[in-house]
Design a protein that fits this description.
Blueprint lengths: L1 E5 L2 E3 L7 E2 L1 E5 L2 E6 L1 H5 L7 E4 L4 E4 L1 E6 L1 H7 L3 E2 L6 H13 L8 E6 L12 H5 L7 E5 L4 E4 L1 H6 L9 E3 L15 H16 L3 E7 L8 H12 L6 E7 L3 H9 L7 E2 L2 E9 L29 H14 L3 E5 L2 H17 L8 E4 L5 H9 L3 E4 L4 H4 L3 H5 L1 H5 L4 H6 L4 E3 L10 H10 L19 H7 L2 H6 L17 E4 L16 E6 L2 E5 L1
Parallel strand pairs: 1-6, 2-7, 8-14, 9-10, 10-11, 14-15, 15-17, 17-18, 18-19, 19-20, 20-21
Antiparallel strand pairs: 1-4, 2-3, 4-5, 7-22, 11-12, 12-13, 16-17, 22-23, 23-24
């Protein structure tokens, strides 16, 4: 199939031809970029022509850290992101209960965040009992590292009567007892629903953590593979393979799975790990006690030795490590582990990485570079976290945290993600946060640590070229260059010239995958 896209303002991110007006694709790959006359010469007169109407084009976006199946599931839960108090949370859940919004007999909710409330306390069983004492209730904090449950849920889960109804980190795993495994058809339907939403946002590739905690990966793997092999997977999926126990990882490898295993648009990606919790819940693991709560340093989910015993398996098998580490204590553990792995069994360019990379000091940033690691960052997080970080960790450490410009200056590859459903995967507001470092709900506010702001082009690269590098696919996608796949997004506005504060309100109007229009407004 031959396709010509003409009359556009096409930002290729290719240094040889950074801005062109036309692009030609044949059988899904770019065969020419340049003027309309130049690209017409690369295809036959029968090529289909699409007029871009002068609109801005960028390489298609990628989201290198999200949870696609969890996102689709979250659409069925009570959205509590807009509540501003425990009282509003109770009222919203009562309304949902009255409307019959139940799942398997439970009232499930998500996305509450006490840090923005006038009384910033975490709801407990007594609060949720005011919603109902008959219907079991589970409400996940925005970070998903804390879940609140009511007395009925405590009883059904067989927890101690002394439980206050606030579950943190591994304690949340008890809720797996109420989960029902979707059928194969249901899984495929969920995947396709999620992919349809991604395309509306110009996203054609995601790194998604879908295996969960149980290590029972086959249903998810098989559903994605079936869709991919039958041409029904419109988005490129890099599957983050989460295994927290050595035996489950060994079984995965014994089953013949390997890094980069590819079936159409489905590809097995990095070994995903959770090393700590979230800053907002004070469960991210710090080297020193929290400045605003000296009673805790957060919750480490591994010891350094147990982390080493697990990751030496993936390191030896050629799987890059992508470890969730928000606190500087968790990051230190990861850096020490990667240094040990490379010293004992050196691998060229392993591309191990830190997911989030939020609370850091200068020495740790330099060690990331020295170890050849990469960072999977979520710029959208500064929208809320800028209001709590200094209180949590102190002004000195906050100054060297969320340090994207410093990371780039050290030569570290950074790729952008949303951690959806923690945050929406609408990447233009996310990209805008990388550029402005402001909270858009506070007009006129100054950037938070403006020395760490990225340029628009740098931010676009984080969600395109940097993302391709994250999965060793920089020669396949990430820029609009001859020979690469023809994946790109057509935008409603020129984000390179408008006021950066308006980038977040721009919209995707067309998404192209393999040279074909996959979605159009």
């Amino acid at each position: 199939m031959e396709k010509l896209y003409v009359n556009g303002s096409i930002h290729t991110l290719d240094a040889a031809s950074p801005l062109v007006s036309a692009l030609a694709a044949v059988d899904g790959r770019i065969v020419a970029i340049g003027t309309e006359a130049e690209v017409r010469a690369a295809v036959s007169p029968a090529a289909e022509v699409v007029d871009l109407g002068g609109r801005t084009v960028t390489p298609a976006f990628s989201d290198t850290h999200m949870h696609l199946l969890s996102y689709v599931g979250s659409k069925r839960e009570v959205d509590l992101s807009a509540v501003h108090s425990v009282e509003e949370l109770i009222a919203a859940c009562r309304a949902a209960l009255a409307a019959g919004q139940l799942a398997n007999g439970w009232l499930m909710g998500r996305a509450w965040n006490q840090n923005g409330w006038s009384v910033p306390r975490i709801p407990d069983r007594h609060d949720l009992d005011q919603i109902s004492r008959e219907v079991p209730i589970a409400l996940s904090r925005a970070c998903y590292h804390v879940i609140c449950i009511n007395t009925r849920a405590i009883e059904l889960l067989g927890l101690s009567a002394a439980c206050d109804g606030v579950l943190r980190e591994d304690e949340c795993s008890c809720l797996s007892a109420i989960e029902t495994e979707p059928t194969a058809d249901a899984l495929e339907s969920m995947i396709q629903e999620g992919c349809g939403d991604l395309l509306k946002n110009g996203i054609t590739c995601v790194h998604t953590d879908d295996f969960g905690d149980a290590g029972h990966y086959e249903p998810v793997y098989s559903a994605y593979r079936r869709l991919a092999e039958t041409g029904k997977l419109p988005v490129r999926i890099v599957q983050q393979c989460r295994f927290g126990e050595p035996e489950k990882l060994k079984q995965f490898l014994a089953d013949g799975r390997f890094y980069g295993e590819t079936h159409g648009h489905y590809r097995l990606g990095e070994h995903k790990l959770l090393l700590d919790g979230s800053l907002g819940a004070r469960t991210s693991y710090m080297r020193k006690p929290y400045a605003d709560d000296p009673s805790t340093q957060g919750i480490p989910l591994f010891t350094e030795e147990s982390l080493y015993e697990l990751t030496r398996i993936s390191h030896a098998a050629g799987f890059p490590i992508a470890a969730h580490a928000i606190g500087d204590g968790a990051l230190e553990m990861l850096l020490n582990t990667v240094a040990r792995l490379q010293a004992e069994s050196p691998r060229p360019d392993p591309r191990h990485g830190v997911v989030h990379c939020q609370i850091t000091d200068e020495a740790q940033l330099k060690r990331i570079a020295q170890l050849g690691m990469q960072a999977y960052v979520q710029p959208i997080f500064v929208r809320a976290d800028q209001h709590i970080t200094e209180a949590r960790v102190g002004a000195q450490l906050a100054k060297t945290s969320y340090a994207w410009k410093t990371l780039l200056g050290l030569g570290i590859n950074i790729s952008g993600g949303s951690d959806c459903p923690v945050e929406p995967f609408d990447l233009l507001p996310n990209l805008a946060c990388a550029v402005t470092r402001t909270d858009p709900t506070m007009p006129g506010a100054k950037p938070w640590h403006p020395e760490q702001c990225l340029s628009v082009e740098e931010a676009v690269r984080v969600f395109t070229q940097g993302a391709a590098y994250a999965s060793f696919e920089e020669n396949e996608r990430g820029t609009l260059s001859v020979g690469k796949v023809a994946d790109f997004a057509v935008l409603s506005r020129d984000i390179f010239t408008i006021d950066p504060n308006e980038i977040g309100s721009s919209r995707v109007e067309m998404t192209v995958v393999d040279g074909e229009i996959a979605w159009e407004k």
